[in-house]
Amino acid sequence: MDPIDELNENLVEFFDRMSSWEQSVIQQGKLNVAGAHAIEKLGHFGSMSMKDLSKDLGVTTGTTTITVDRLEKGGYAVRERADNDRRSYIIRLTEKGNDAYLDHHRHHLSFAKEIASFLTDEEIECFTAVLEKINKEI
Amino acid sequence: MDPIDELNENLVEFFDRMSSWEQSVIQQGKLNVAGAHAIEKLGHFGSMSMKDLSKDLGVTTGTTTITVDRLEKGGYAVRERADNDRRSYIIRLTEKGNDAYLDHHRHHLSFAKEIASFLTDEEIECFTAVLEKINKEI
DNA sequence: ATATATTGTTTGATAGTCAAACTATGTGTG
DNA sequence: CACACATAGTTTGACTATCAAACAATATAT
Question: Which domain range does residue A80 map to?
């Protein structure tokens, strides 16, 4: 079989399984999908404006308005006026929001751990290196 | 840095990039997201019942009803009565539906080709082998 | 000053989803 | 056989996710 076909098949299946896993992890928690994604970004990259958050999430600012409204109502995040530009807000996770982020992060870590558990050290190293290379190039 | 952390970071970023890519590919075509996913399954695994399709897609049969309604309206698929069970339908791609599948498949292949283009033969081999292993174990 | 650009919100529309009620059909048991 | 139970798919009602376009407030440039 052509190596590209083989790579493709495994990539597609892997992506599918990752998607299901992510979906089920989110549904275990109390957050809705959009909120969970926003919290992941805010936890990973830190507080940022509506515009930057929208760009990171790949959605319009209108969509982000709704998402952040719900996060605020749920007590996960707050809008804070930006010092330098009075049109802009900085979205910051509350302690509750940060806890949710850490919890999600732990799930990711245990997923990575599970994967690593049935790979050799050499395979882990190669896999990580290739992923890093792909992330840089794509 | 801990190898697990490093693996996790790269996995998360990779998944994020794959998601964006998939999203943009679907939006280039005429199909909506749910329809595109259904066509992928039907093209890959062949005709199947509403129930099996729902299970493959990870949604309820109610959701699949809507999705297949729209595919039928668009001329991408047809419901055919199952021979053995008159409650059941077999969902089959039309020629138009199969063309859409092949088109999507070509996009996936060129994505795999792009990835392969900046990897060594050895890296491709290792990456594919690890993905296969993960897909089997997860 | 005045026009233009930018940040974020609102509005109106559509898609995606689920749970629960429902219809039609199939299966098993006394 | 008849009745209960199970299963395949649809419908309904509700909510979330999303976009594009119109809008308000503020910033920037000429």
Answer: 3-137
Q: Are A126 and B9 in contact (CB under 8 A)?
A: no
Q: Which residues contact B104 (CB under 8 A, 6 or more apart)?
A: B25, B29, B36, B39, B40, B43
**Cα(A91)–Cα(A89) distance, rounded to whole angstroms?**
6
**CB-based contact, A58 to chain B, within 8 Å:** yes
> Does residue A66 belong to the interface with chain B, where contact is any CB pair within 8 Å?
no
State, as a whole number of angstroms, the distance between the CA of A82 and the C1' of C8.
12
From A133's Cα to the closest Cα of chain B, the distance in A is 8
* Element holding B79 (H helix, E strand): strand B77-81
* Both structure tokens of A138: 């794509």
Q: How many domains does chain B have?
A: 1
Rounded to the nearest angstrom, the minimum Cα separation between B114 and chain A is 9
pLDDT tens sequence across A85-97: 999 999 999 999 9
Q: What are φ and ψ of residue A79, in 5° steps?
A: -90, 130
The CATH number of the domain where A70 resides is what?
A: 1.10.10.10
**Interface residue B102 vs chain A (CB under 8 A):** no
Instruction: Find the CB nearest B11 among A4, A12, A131.
Output: A131
A26-49 confidence digits (pLDDT tens): 999 999 999 999 999 999 999 999
Give the total residue count for chain B.
138
